[in-house]
Design the sequence.
């Protein structure tokens, strides 16, 4: 791992970690993120957690190669079970689906005691993470959106305190699109949601061909409304 081969995505995740943090990177794979963060003096120590053998060994090899064994502890286990309560102040979980990230946080709730910041990078369904954060007393303090190699990613940063970014009137839409990203409303955001609308329109065509049962009608109506409200934001 060197400067140039850490993805833009993971560099942006690293930028969300406050200097001097003790980090747990869950689903660390090659441990590129904690190694980069340690090398650049962002963190003082890290745990790289991995549930699968292959990525676990890749992480061990990478940490050994850089001689960071005294600073980065590679641990095998499911989700947050690799950390002890109070051991870290920041948790990063990157490169998984939103539902998996939310389920890891839910299953490891007791380990979040003492954790000040979560940096979460879902590949899909970021809305499910926003819902989890809302239900569990975490406040979104930042949202980023980026495109790399033709894929669009979102990065959600949350803390226990902060200004509520949601509005009462647009709450459901903000959970879907991201309350902060909706305000930033940059080119990548517009591209992501324009692509989503194209996909939703294809689903709508399928619904139109299907037998109009009440269930189909309801789903169709829900989709029509979703398309209309997202289009409104993109205007
Ligand atoms: N975080 C790295 C990144 O963003 O590039 C690696 C992402 S990789 C696609 C997802 C990793 O998460 C895999 O190495 C997988 O083994 C690991 N993983 C999946 N579920 C996990 C869980 N419940 N606990 C720990 N690791 C998990």
Sequence:
């Amino acid at each position: 791992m060197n400067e140039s081969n850490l993805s833009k995505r993971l560099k942006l995740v690293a930028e969300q970690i406050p200097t001097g943090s003790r980090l747990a990177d869950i689903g660390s794979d090659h441990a590129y993120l904690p190694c980069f963060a340690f090398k650049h003096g962002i963190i003082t120590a890290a745990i790289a957690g991995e549930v699968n053998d292959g990525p676990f060994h890749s992480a061990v090899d990478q940490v050994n190669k850089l001689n960071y064994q005294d600073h980065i502890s590679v641990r095998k286990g499911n989700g947050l079970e690799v950390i002890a309560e109070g051991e870290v102040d920041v948790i990063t979980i990157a490169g998984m689906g939103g539902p998996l990230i939310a389920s890891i946080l839910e299953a490891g709730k007791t380990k979040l005691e003492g954790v000040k910041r979560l940096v979460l990078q879902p590949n899909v369904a970021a809305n499910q993470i926003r819902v989890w954060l809302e239900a569990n007393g975490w406040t979104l303090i930042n949202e980023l959106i980026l495109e790399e190699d033709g894929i669009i990613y979102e990065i959600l940063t949350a803390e226990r305190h902060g200004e509520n970014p949601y509005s009462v009137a647009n709450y459901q839409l903000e959970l879907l699109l991201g309350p902060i990203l909706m305000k930033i409303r940059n080119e990548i955001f517009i591209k992501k949601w324009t692509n989503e609308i194209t996909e939703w329109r294809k689903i709508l065509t399928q619904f139109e061909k299907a037998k109009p049962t009440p269930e189909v009608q309801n789903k169709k109506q829900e989709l029509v409304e979703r398309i209309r409200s997202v289009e409104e934001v993109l205007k």
